């Protein structure tokens, strides 16, 4: 039986030779080998800027190919690998991956879910699906909030904590960019438009990729705006008024405070 770390090393050799598709496939095989036949918590001695868990090391390399955003690795070009990553999205059930047992196993599973959401978000953004990108980032941030070492880059972080904390910070920055773009675009179109996630606006959007600049004819809003006058919050997962389905609120408090005015619109 070929061990996962051996497959990973073979992948690294292919990568050094510039044979990235072959390296990518070996990374995928290594992940499957460890998940099916090995201890997911096995570790190796590495510098503190890298995870120690072999599975996390291979996982990060696999995801780096998807995150390269050059169009070479996508759901369409590599469906098996994409399905593997998608199975670790934050919304997936922990029962789907029973290999992760005990506190350290659950910690590693959270790390893999967070980094999977990062890659899925970047892939979605690359396809112009800003709403799904924002959703994936928020799902990852919600998981990171349950494990403080993942939630912020702080002095002294090492190995897996350090790796995931940097991923989380980058996702937080990406989500903030999506929110700011929504806020600016909604302000430009005016007239109460651009306040609901997935709302389509008659406004052009320029997307800059690694190899091309794409001009979309419409703009799809990625986040909700809180419907209470005076609240400037935007985000993902806001609750909508159960009566009209057209107004979102960032919190129960905002909805209650706005109810006297909002009920007149029903």
Automatic annotation (TrEMBL):
<keyword id="KW-0862">Zinc</keyword>
<keyword id="KW-0479">Metal-binding</keyword>
<dbReference type="InterPro" id="IPR011990">
    <property type="entry name" value="TPR-like_helical_dom_sf"/>
</dbReference>
<dbReference type="GO" id="GO:0008270">
    <property type="term" value="F:zinc ion binding"/>
</dbReference>
<protein>
    <recommendedName>
        <fullName>MYND-type domain-containing protein</fullName>
    </recommendedName>
</protein>
<dbReference type="Pfam" id="PF01753">
    <property type="entry name" value="zf-MYND"/>
</dbReference>
<keyword id="KW-0863">Zinc-finger</keyword>
<dbReference type="InterPro" id="IPR002893">
    <property type="entry name" value="Znf_MYND"/>
</dbReference>
<feature type="domain" description="MYND-type">
    <location>
        <begin position="223"/>
        <end position="266"/>
    </location>
</feature>
């Amino acid at each position: 039986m070929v061990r996962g770390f051996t497959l990973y090393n073979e992948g690294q050799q292919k990568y050094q030779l510039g044979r990235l598709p072959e390296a990518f496939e070996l990374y995928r095989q290594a992940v499957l080998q460890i998940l099916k036949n090995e201890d997911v918590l096995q570790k190796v001695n590495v510098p503190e800027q890298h995870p120690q868990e072999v599975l996390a090391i291979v996982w990060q390399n696999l995801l780096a190919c998807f995150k390269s955003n050059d169009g070479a690795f996508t759901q369409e070009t590599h469906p098996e690998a994409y399905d593997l990553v998608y199975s670790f999205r934050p919304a997936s059930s922990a029962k789907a991956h029973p290999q992760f047992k005990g506190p350290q196993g659950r910690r590693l599973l959270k790390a893999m879910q967070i980094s999977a959401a990062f890659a899925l978000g970047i892939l979605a953004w690359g396809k112009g699906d800003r709403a799904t990108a924002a959703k994936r980032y928020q799902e990852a941030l919600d998981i990171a909030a349950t494990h403080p070492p993942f939630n912020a880059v702080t002095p002294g972080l090492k190995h897996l904590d350090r790796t995931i904390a940097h991923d989380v910070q980058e996702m937080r920055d990406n989500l903030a960019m999506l929110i700011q773009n929504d806020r600016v675009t909604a302000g430009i179109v005016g007239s109460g438009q651009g306040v609901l996630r997935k709302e389509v606006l008659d406004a052009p959007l320029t997307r800059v990729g690694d190899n091309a600049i794409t001009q979309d004819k419409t703009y799809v809003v990625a986040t909700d705006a809180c419907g209470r006058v005076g609240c400037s919050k935007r985000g993902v997962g806001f609750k909508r008024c159960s009566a009209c389905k057209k107004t979102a609120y960032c919190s129960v408090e905002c909805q209650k405070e706005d109810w006297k005015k909002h009920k007149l619109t029903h």
